[in-house]
Amino acid sequence: SVEGLQNYASALMYSARTEQALAISAEAAQEAASLYGAGSAGAVRADLARGNLLLGSGRHADAGKLLTAALQIWRDSRRAPNQDFLQALTDLSRVHHALGETAAAESLLREAVTTAERIYDAPHDRIALALLNLGDALRLQARVDEAESVLVRALAMMRAIYGDGHLRVANTLSSLGRLELRRYDLAAATQHMHAAVQWCEHPDRHATRSCIEIYANQTELALATGDLDQADASSARALAMANEIFPQGHLWMAQLWQL
């Protein structure tokens, strides 16, 4: 089935078998177009799923073309937006960000926030995620005051939904820590980062991309405060987790070795 092929492609991508994942996702997209018809809801969903995998593989130009075309078909059809539409907006924003097109990326993320607020009642995780993504984009542009107000809203909503001790709360705290590090408010950055890393240090926690990023952020903070022992420990933890997930030569591995 189309769904089975898509799930298989996602599993292959998660285990870093990129070429196999992309081949299977292409097969799923072709099957969806054949089964449901070109331009149908099913075909568009399959294209969006493939666009997500192309983005994850770093093939930004290909991902951008596919996501842009699929979103335009969705808009032209006047189908109601849902979480797939929101994910596509986020994915395409990441393509634009990777290509240095920050204004286009921000516009899509703002659309994601307003769309999520229109189709869901707050507090809702899709609204909170849209706020987190927008806040991160503003932070990366050094618009720290705007970013802070958005990230504080995201954190409040995440906590309302999940309570403390959840990965999405940890991710938001880590983003706030990065923001305070950019301000060079090391005390506030330390407070947020310490709270974020608690989730990753649970004894039964398996390796995740989020925790790799959280430990990498903690490494940057430790270097900024001159705590070289903590920097070594955090970078080693990030690398150990990355080794569990990614093969040598993967982009994430290369980035971590630069810490």
How are the secondary structure elements laid out?
Layout: H1 2-14, H2 18-36, H3 41-56, H4 60-77, H5 83-98, H6 102-119, H7 125-140, H8 144-162, H9 167-183, H10 186-200, H11 209-225, H12 228-245, H13 251-257
Helix pairs in contact: 1-2, 1-3, 2-3, 3-4, 3-5, 4-5, 5-6, 5-7, 6-7, 7-8, 7-9, 8-9, 9-10, 9-11, 10-11, 11-12, 12-13
Describe the structure.
The mean pLDDT is 92. The protein has 259 residues and is an all-alpha fold. Helices cover 81% and strands 0% of the residues. The longest helix has 19 residues.
Helical residue percent? Answer: over 70%
Main pleated sheet: none
Name the shape in a single word: globular
Task: Show unreliable segments.
Answer: none
What is the number of E strands? 0
Mean pLDDT equals 92
DSSP strand content: under 5%
The number of helical segments is 13
Q: Return the string of H and E elements.
A: HHHHHHHHHHHHH
Helix/strand-derived category reads mainly alpha
- Give the C-alpha Rg: 19 Å
Intertermini distance? 43 Å
Describe the structure using short key phrases:
259 residues, single chain
Question: Could you give a quick summary of the protein structure above?
Answer:
The protein is 81% helix and 0% strand.
